[in-house]
Amino acid sequence: MKSVVLHGADDLRIETGSDPAPGPGEVLVSGAYGGICGSDLHYWRHGRNGAFDVVEPLVLGHEFSGRILELGAGVDGVDPGQLITVHPATHCGRCRSCLSGARHLCENGSYAGSAAVIPHRAGLFSTVQVVRADQIRRLPAAVSPQHAAVIEPLAVAVHAVRRAGGVDGRSVLVNGAGPIGALAVAAAKAEGAQTVYASDLSASALAIAANMGADETINLAQGQQLPYDVDVVIEASGAAAALGGCLSSARRGGTVVQVGNLPGGPIQAELAALVGREINYVGAFRFDHEMTDAADMIAAGLDVSPVVTHTFGLDDALGAFKTAADKNISSKVLLDLHPTQDRSTVA
After folding, report:
1. Tens of pLDDT along the chain (347 residues)?
2. Which of 232, 253, 283 is the last residue of a domain?
3. Which residues are 129's β-sheet partners?
4. Contact 178, 322 (CB under 8 A)
5. Could you say which protein family the record assigns here (predicted)?
6. Who's near 281: CB < 8 A, 6+ residues apart?
7. Domain assignment present for 290
8. Do 314 and 4 contact (CB within 8 A), yes or no?
9. Do the domain assignments include residue 12?
10. Boundaries of domain holding 214
11. With contact defined as beta carbons under 8 Å apart, do 333 and 35 qualify?
């Protein structure tokens, strides 16, 4: 097996090891595609993501599709050859969050490809790997392996849209048209939003948002203004300087959902409208059951292909990461995780 392993800031390596074997309750999976996330980029560029430092080698990746190779003892309900994705989270099942139905906020959980716990939780950028059977999500036949790797970020976007309390028949502004923002545009339309605006500084990102269903795009670099009095704002840029405009864009009593990761330290932001317009300002963190919903949306015809701009072989993971870090040329960058000899025959 081959894996993409981070040893520290700007120290990304392709490492080879023996293929693992599944134990009881586990499944051996062959990788198909993996999507590079912003957190992967933070780990690669800085050796840390938010408050979490890489202190030991870490296999990156949590956006994944693959096929089942072998079942461990006691596993049923899945068959070799099936296309699957993997829910990246592990939940304790006993903390207040888990018991209240908010497993994605688990106080003792972990996430694939994350340095939040020690030992670090290995990620999914490998040609072959063992996964717990309860993390496997079987996929409808209508979902392609490439699009299956986009289910995880789409689930993040769906969760963010739903944190607004429903968007059916409402107006929505998505600020920040990177991969999560573009997928939030699609999720808002799928959830029944009447009008969806997308704003960004990048013309290429806005073009992708338009292809994902945005009714109107706003290029902030060209001095275009945000819409006024929208029902819901999804802030997906993570730029503190954007908060003031987003709060002012929302109608009085409207909702701003923060899904873009803000800087970990002190920030300066214009927040007066939060009180003056009585805005509901809420955070959105990952997802739980929305992963199944996201898969169903794609199977039903939601086209995520405009978001996927590049695909690299695993051996060129460094080139893939460099491309993903350049937002002027890329949106979602995929790694082809098939073994080299299989790439010509496996879809």
Report:
1. 999 999 999 999 999 999 999 999 999 999 999 999 999 999 999 999 888 899 999 999 999 999 999 999 999 989 999 999 999 999 999 999 999 999 999 999 999 999 999 999 999 999 999 999 999 999 999 999 999 999 999 999 999 999 999 999 999 999 999 999 999 999 999 999 999 999 999 999 999 999 999 999 999 999 999 999 999 999 999 999 999 999 999 999 999 999 998 887 788 888 999 999 999 999 999 999 999 999 999 999 999 999 999 999 999 999 999 999 999 999 999 999 998 655 444 44
2. 283
3. 29
4. no
5. Belongs to the zinc-containing alcohol dehydrogenase family.
6. 247, 255, 256, 258, 274
7. no
8. yes
9. yes
10. 157-283
11. yes
User: CA 166 → CA 22, 156, 210, 225, distances in Å?
Assistant: 41, 15, 22, 25
What CATH number is associated with residue 245?
3.40.50.720
Domain count, the chain: 2
pTM: 0.95
Please tell me whether residue 235 adopts helix, strand or coil conformation. Answer: strand
The separation between CA 288 and the C-alpha centre of its own chain, rounded to angstroms, equals 12
Q: Residue 83 in contact with residue 44, Cβ under 8 Å?
A: no
Q: Cα-flanking dihedrals φ and ψ of residue 113, to 5°?
A: 70, 25
CATH of the domain at 124: 3.90.180.10
Side chain identity at residue 225, one-letter code: Q
